[in-house]
Write a structure and sequence with these properties.
The structure is a homodimer of 225-residue chains.
Chain A (H helix, E strand, L loop, with lengths): L10 H15 L7 E2 L1 H8 L3 H13 L3 E4 L3 E4 L4 H25 L7 H16 L2 H19 L2 H21 L7 H15 L3 H25 L1 H4 L1
Antiparallel strand pairs in A: 1-3, 2-3
Chain A binds a DNA duplex (30 and 30 nucleotides) through helix 3.
DNA sequence: GCATTCTTTAATGTATACGCAAATAAATGC
DNA sequence: GCATTTATTTGCGTATACATTAAAGAATGC
């Protein structure tokens, strides 16, 4: 429970937050159906805010509302991840380019640098959860520095689904040492204001990560189905 | 009125369609506020479907719901268009690449070829409306051929806003002769299965179009405000 | 025993009612 | 006359009730 629950947040907002959390945590498993009224009872509110929340989560691609069938939690297939990574590759590369063009000061790049440091520490400690968290921070901050609000929104939307897939891949994939090097190279290009380098390096980084992760998901597809 | 109105479409769906249309046509002008109850009365339904529709259109960036202020129709600034075109540049270039990789047959490329033909005719006849329509078809079909459903969804979402901006630029911009040549080059690269060429040519095409259109919007910013 | 139709059920789509909070208007104190 | 506080209004958030319709089950005819 956060500090504010019934206070400043509306029921609709709580429903969005809670349902999202339940989906990401797997409490609402992929592929399962749930009636609006069940969810309403679970979260202790009426159907109205549940419907509004479901509508929002539907537009984010986390679930699907089907008349008479209830809301279905959408599974994330390897094909889905391929689509998502394709988009992230393009939009994050753009962000890297724009961030390099912007000529940020060392201070303004502190969060980005910090996330790389955290990833290094996590690798050292072989703490994959911590690494994943820092990795997400890096990508999120990179996109923020890119300065395009719509890119930010799209990436945030997709990152929910990436997070779900990561639950599968994180403990199977090789230790992300190479990944950390990639991040450093991109960071350097941004801090040296070299847009084309930042763009291309990040693009390569993403393409490699995508190939690896989709490969893993493909292999384990049968397991999860 | 389409063939089906009260028949197969729910009120929520009608509200989405009608509100979207009213925004695109300018009937609901950018920057204006409207109470949920007003809109409900206008469309002859209760607030519930209006709210659900507004929620969807909000996620598409056409409007904003603000407590006690009503729903605000969001204006499209030149900054907005810069953001949108940046995204379209990246995602459509990806689509062009993927379309070229897919190795479509002549038949499968018929719609794309047709849209180019229509643009040529429109230029000939100096019919800018027809040209815009064909141009939109080209980009839409290109993205479809790219085979990424999420890209399709994002582009469709943004194209609503592009359409609103076009109302400003269409009759000011130079006759899009160069644009047609660009399209032909991209088409050829796709039909010859040359992904890198398709990607780069389309990218250049988009960057030029963006620079031109944002320039126009920038100039006429004062007029519209 | 199977198929078809009717009945019933159950879940959604939508209307409506109401409480609450925010914005505006009014009133009182200084 | 201005500021501050109090009333009032008004629009939203949400609960709830109801109508609609699709799906499931029962029953009847063949």
């Amino acid at each position: 429970m956060k500090d504010q629950d019934a206070k400043t947040l509306s029921n609709t907002q709580r429903a969005v937050r809670d349902l999202r959390q339940m989906i990401l945590s797997g409490e609402l498993a992929a592929g399962t159906d749930h009636l609006e009224s069940e969810l309403a009872e679970t979260l202790g509110m009426s159907r109205t805010p549940i419907r509004e929340a479901a509508l929002m989560l539907e537009s984010k691609g986390l679930l699907e509302m089907r008349p008479r069938k209830g809301v279905r939690i959408l599974p994330v297939s390897s094909d889905d991840m391929r689509e998502i990574y394709d988009i992230l590759t393009e939009l994050e590369s753009l962000a890297a380019q724009r961030a390099a063009e912007a000529g940020y000061s060392e201070d303004e790049l502190a969060v980005l640098a910090g996330s790389i440091a955290k990833m290094d520490q996590a690798i050292e400690a072989e703490d994959l959860e911590a690494w994943a968290e820092a990795d997400e921070l890096f990508h999120q901050e990179l996109v923020r520095l890119g300065g395009n609000k719509r890119v930010e929104a799209i990436v945030a939307m997709m990152s929910d689904q990436v997070r779900r897939a990561r639950a599968t891949t994180l403990f199977i994939r090789p230790l992300p040492v190479k990944s950390n090097e990639d991040h450093r190279v991109v960071f350097q290009a941004i801090s040296e204001s070299r847009p084309d380098v930042a763009r291309e390096r990040h693009r390569e980084h993403r393409l490699q990560a995508q190939a690896m992760l989709c490969g893993i998901l493909e292999k384990h597809r049968l397991t999860s189905l």
